[in-house]
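Input structure tokens:
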């Protein structure tokens, strides 16, 4: 594959990035071709030594999304980063998607538990409106206790969510470095 074909495939594979970022990346790879020509290599040898444009694009996209998630860790950014890292290799479906689903389930269940405990006094009031003869002070005070526990759970979940997010982003970075390192030795 010559320089023009390589750069065209790389540009197509990087279509999710902004045009400025794509242009910077393409200029870097044009520089690789220029350096290779100075060293006496043909365009085909240079493109072969660089590797597959699609794999290069996958690695660059994964790195881009991981950098973006470190700046602003929104749910959408995290999902894009996870998806980009999964795209690096089939093995990552198990290694990345499994822990991601498990962590999301644990975090979601913690938030749901905290919210359920917080709204428990409302359920006591609804029960009082529907069945006025069943009111007991124990129910009221127990629901207030659950509200306090729910607030503590919610506060704890804020810290757990931040910690797990940072930890999982570190895990994704490790996975990308591992895949990139593994690709170099093949």
């Amino acid at each position: 594959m010559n320089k023009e074909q390589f750069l065209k495939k790389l540009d197509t594979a990087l279509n999710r990035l902004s045009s400025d970022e794509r242009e910077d990346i393409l200029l870097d790879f044009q520089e690789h071709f220029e350096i290779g020509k100075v060293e006496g290599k043909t365009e085909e040898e240079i493109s072969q030594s660089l590797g597959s444009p699609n794999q290069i694009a996958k690695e660059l996209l994964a790195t881009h999304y991981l950098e973006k998630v470190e700046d602003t860790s929104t749910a959408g950014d995290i999902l894009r980063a996870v998806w980009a890292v999964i795209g690096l290799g089939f093995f990552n479906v198990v290694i990345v998607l499994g822990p991601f689903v498990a962590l999301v389930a644990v975090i979601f269940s913690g938030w749901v538990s905290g919210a359920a405990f917080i709204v428990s006094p409302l359920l006591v009031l609804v029960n009082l409106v529907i069945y006025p003869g069943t009111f007991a002070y124990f129910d009221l005070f127990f629901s207030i206790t659950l509200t306090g526990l729910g607030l503590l759970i919610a506060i704890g979940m804020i810290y757990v969510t931040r910690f797990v997010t940072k930890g999982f982003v570190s895990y994704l970075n490790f996975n990308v470095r591992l895949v990139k390192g593994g690709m170099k030795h093949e």
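The two ends are 20 Å apart (CA to CA). Helices lie at 3-13, 19-38, 43-50, 53-71, 75-86, 91-118, 120-130, 137-184.
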